[in-house]
Amino acid sequence: MVSLEELLQLLVQRGGSDLHIASGSPPRIRIDGKLMPTEFDTLTKEESQKLVYGVLSEDQIAKFEKDLELDFSFGVDNLGRFRTNVFLQRGSVGAVFRLVPHAVRTFDDLGLPRKVCQ
Cα–Cα distance between 5 and 23 in angstroms, integer? Predict the structure, then answer.
């Protein structure tokens, strides 16, 4: 099974904004607003939970299992920071990992009209 760190590296390499983990589908990466499947196998309920729980502390797992939702952020050395939402979907654990860029993008990078930039 692929590791979460490998999936997060793939997210960064492909220039994606989000990594989606859910059972019943392969891990997916949002690139330019479109969800794209990765080349990895469809995740089982157990694999999805293992990927997500692997980054949670015992306290976070307890909170998630009580509330059935959890928001937090974490960093991976030499990769970046990720804002994360863990949820229960169709009876299985799922999550979305949003890449938080280190660098602030310029107006030109964002493609904003000149009027907005003034």
Answer: 18
